[in-house]
Amino acid sequence: MLSGLRSARRRRGRNTRTARIAVPAAAVVALGLTVGIVVGTSGHGTPKLRSAASSGSAGVSSTAVEDTCDIIVPAHPLTAKGLATPYQLTGPAGGSPAATGCQMVNSVNLGAYVQATILNTQTGALSVYNPLVITAGTEPAVKPVVPKLPKHAIVTIDFGFNGTFLLQEGATADALAQGHCTDGMPGSPFGQVSFCNGINFFSEAFKLERAGALHIPSAGIAKNMVPSAGSLGTGRQCPTTRSFEMVDQDPSDNVTTKYLMNSAGQTAQDNTANAARMPGAQVLVNGSDNALLDDFLDPALGCTPLMAPDLGNHGMMTTSQALDELLASGNTQPGSAALVPENDEMVLGLGNSPDTAKTDLYRAEIGQAPVDGTTDANSSPAMFCQNMMNIQTAFIAANEKTFAAWPSPVPTVGDTLYTFMANRLASSFDNLNCANFGLHQTVSTVNNGGGAATEATLNDDPQTVGF
Fold first, then answer.
1. Tell me: the pLDDT tens digits for 92-114?
2. β pairing state of 87-90 and 133-135
3. Of the residues 38, 50, 124, 148, which has the fewest C-beta atoms closer than 10 A?
4. pTM score over 0.70
């Protein structure tokens, strides 16, 4: 993006994720309201979950921490060479990584993550590749694997960030144009997320689906789920990223990419070979709605996410943001789906006002239908709030026993998956200003001294918008 737009971007009166939920400043939030803070030793078992407060940031060379960073996109990003060229995290407006804190060693606060999903347009086969992000001025801990792309491949690239604004910069003058990349509207970035070539990818995928060349499976039946009232007819269908049972105030954001980091702060792709080369390496994770669904809700409910071979890890099956969106698209209709609403702060325009064009751009990059009468039936600002509070409150309450027995994605938000989901829903109500539509808060929590919910009470009486 043009450097002349930066001052306008930085002047936006927008709350940070830390300010938007009642947890300590050290416990930065993502997973919709959380920042990804799964940090553990290398290997492919379940990592230990630690809060940002306890994970530390040893090796950060500056105490300055921005809420905004730049990510340098390689030339020809949609090619095998471009995908295998490390992306670089650096400070905004020419600031150095050290001076701004925009370093992967500071990943809890400002880590950036990149994920590519590949579609073979001849066969309909899907695959995933996670390009590496390094701190600008460093070298990878291990050189990235060069993916073998199908001859007739179309690639989409999704970006996630644990800060507030991640702005794209091209390594060459035309790198962003080559990749059909966007981080929002002029002077008005999305925030944590951005994209390359999503519109073309989903357009081709949907065309292949209609032709029968790409088959997206059923979301499946949740073996452990208790059906709740008012679920828009989903019954015990496994939730997707477009289900009101699991969305928050900024749905469909961030990626499922993980990286390994050595003691020197160098990063590497998270694959079996690198884990063996880097014993004791930390696992860095981008907290996201997708990670919440794929790594917590799905296993808790007895569901399985859509997966595809990882071209950077010997074809082992893995998840991705785009795969989650394809599964969601194939299992929900626009009139009943939870799509990105116009009061999601990532799609608000200048002056924090609704911006239909920006909302449509974001939706198109993840394969969602544009704002119109059909989608507004459930995803207008008012109806999104009503459905989220009615459906998700009942869903969490009905499945309290299951969720209470499952670990929390972020223990500084809730001490179990149940209290985490309840606290996340309560904050989404506030962040979307749902009270403006005549709705009331359905969640009350008891928090410990660190701000984490340890008890939650939910009122699942249905309510209707009124002004």
1. 999 999 999 999 999 988 999 99
2. parallel
3. 148
4. yes
